[in-house]
Write a structure and sequence with these properties.
Layout: H1 14-36, H2 39-53, H3 59-67, E1 74-75, E2 78-81, E3 87-91, E4 96-101, E5 110-116, E6 122-129, E7 133-138
Antiparallel strand pairs: 1-2, 3-4, 3-7, 4-5, 5-6
Helix pairs in contact: 1-3
Amino acid sequence: MPETHSELPILPGQFEQLAAARREWIETVLRPWCLASSLKELRKAEVEWFDIAGRADTNATLWTWAWERFPDSVHPDLPGVNETFELLVTLTDGSQISGFPDGRKSQRGMLILLGLSEAGDSLTHGPISIDQIAAVARI
């Protein structure tokens, strides 16, 4: 017969301590990891996100936290990239592009910008990998 573990006594406040420890882990380990990880690593985590983060939606957590490395690209209260402001995006090669993020098409660490040519025609820039972006500023 397999060895059984004795049940731990249920103490008042034990669940609250567990929940607080989980919140602390999310804020001090998981969220910073998303802020610093490469697209390749983020996509690996996405596959296992349900097990890593619980029942958290990847767009609201993993991908939003990853985009928070560029604070002007996100809204503090909404998931995903913020479509409200035109952005100036500086790429790691030094080039710059501008446009409004397309929130529906900017998925899984890839940014799509909608802009206008000098002639006034609509332009689509991207997809641009989060790894290709050096800086983001609101225009």
